[in-house]
Amino acid sequence: MHELSIATAIIERADELARADGTEAVSAVTVRVGELAGVVPDALGFAFEVARDGTALAGARLVVEQVPAQAWCGPCAEEFPVGMPPFFWCPRCDQPSSDLRSGRELEIAGIEPSPAPA
Ligand SMILES: [Zn+2]
After folding, report:
1. Which of 41, 70, 97, 117 yields a CA-CA distance of 20 to 30 A from 28?
2. Where along the chain is Ni(2+) bound (predicted)?
């Protein structure tokens, strides 16, 4: 399962970020996942729950921000959604474009530290 290795990588990276910040525990991790990143958000969420045990993220929630795939059309000077499966053809001027501007993201957008115990 490909999402498990991605979830493990996200957890390792978030764990490093948390430690660098002096954060003991993380309550939430937000990741940006592009429409074309090849990741199923539900599967990623499940893999995250399996992989988080024993890390600073053991009590953390995974928040997935989906990023739509958009390509740039030069003649129209506008972006258009390529959809899934991707179709690189501008709907306005009916011309092909392979200038993908977003949709392949797979990155940590932020981590939220747990409130310090009282
Ligand atoms: Zn166009």
Report:
1. 70
2. 2
List the domain boundaries for the chain. Answer: 1-67+103-118, 69-102
In single-letter form, the type of residue at position 100 comes to L
Q: Each residue of 46-77: pLDDT tens digit? A: 999 999 998 989 999 999 999 999 999 999 99
- Rounded CA separation 74/66 (Å): 25
* pLDDT reported for residue 118: 61
Angstrom CA distances, 10 to 3, 7, 25, 74, stand at: 10, 5, 15, 35
Fold of domain 1-67+103-118: hypothetical protein PF0899 fold (3.30.2320)
Q: In this structure, which residues have their CB less than 5 angstroms from ion ligand 1?
A: 73, 76, 90, 92-93
73 is in an annotated binding site: yes
Per the CB < 8 A criterion, the answer to whether 35 and 103 are in contact is yes
